[in-house]
Amino acid sequence: MAKKEKSDYLIQAVSHALDLLEQFHGEVDELGVTELSKRLKLHKNNVFRLLATLESRSYIEQNKVTENYRLGLRTLELGQTFIKQMGLLRQSKPVLETLVENCNETTYVSILKDFNIVYLDVVETGMTVRVVPRVGSRLPAYCTAAGKVQIAYMSDEELETYLPVKELKSYTPSTITDRDALKLQLKNIAEQGYALDNEELDIGVKCVSAPIRDYTRRIIGAVSISGPSMRFSDERIHSELIPLVLKAGDEISSKLGYQK
Questions:
Q1: Radius of gyration, CA atoms only, the chain
Q2: CB 154: neighbour CB atoms within 10 A?
Q3: How far is CA 28 from CA 69, 189, 190, 230, 255, in A?
Q4: Distance between CA 97 and CA 99 in Å, rounded?
Q5: Phi and psi at residue 196, in whole multiples of 5°?
Q6: E-assigned strands of 85-129?
Q7: What predicted TM-score, i.e. pTM, was given to this entire model?
Q8: Tally of CB atoms within 10 A around 111
Q9: Backbone dihedral region of 216: left (phi > 0), alpha (psi from -120 to 50 degrees) or beta?
Q10: What are the sequence ranges of the domains in the chain?
Q11: For 184-223, how does the pLDDT look when each residue is reduced to its tens digit (9 = 90+)?
């Protein structure tokens, strides 16, 4: 009996679903049913069924304003899982270690999940007074340097999706809870290429962060230097820590295939 090729086991519906997902690439953010039908050479009813199935599992979501479709959060989660397992952690570890050697402060690498950041890895300083490691913790993006530097490059529409529906919670007197003030700060962050957390989440803790990009030029994470405010003077932040974290962000991004 002849051995079957792997192609003989393909399930057409699954293949069509994957073909649909692959239409969202490059600069293509949203597509309508008619356009997808043309691209896939499938009847609109078939496209509707594929979209409904993928939407039920959060791989696809509909923009209620335009009624077009775009990738859902589940695809982001899968991508982040791949990054975590295969690329980001492996490439960032030696950079974090070098950062600690250069500034003797705690360094992190993190990703964005929903409207929170999740710290994936940390290299601690040897200083007695230091920030408590938070690997695996979820922290609000709007009052952390690592979070702000990742949401700063979002479009207004994307940002509205990520901003909490309820009021922005105040964690310290320095937490920005006014949406317009936050958007203004995010605009400045996008222009300067780094973000600061000036005791906005924890009193006595400051942080500086830079984005990490992959070969598609998308921001997939952030690298941060964090420590007690008594060691993070404005002069030190701008003369030493910002240049170091920007260099680290560029180095990790380069390792992931990003080219300026």
A1: 21
A2: 17
A3: 11, 25, 22, 46, 25
A4: 5
A5: -120, 145
A6: 106-113, 116-123
A7: 0.65
A8: 23
A9: alpha
A10: 6-71, 75-255
A11: 999 999 999 999 999 999 999 999 999 999 888 889 899 9
Domain 6-71 has CATH 3.30.930.10: no
**Six-digit token pair at 237?**
């932040």
User: Comparing C-alpha atoms, which of 103, 137, 114 is closest to residue 207?
Assistant: 103
CATH code of the domain made up of 75-255:
3.30.450.40
110, 187, 229: which is closest to 237 by C-alpha? Answer: 229
Closest CA to 145 of 60, 223, 71: 223
User: In 62-77, which positions are buried (b, 16+ CB within 10 angstroms) versus exposed (e)?
Assistant: eeeeeeebbbbeebbe
Structure tokens at 177: 């809870």
Length of the chain counted residue by residue: 260
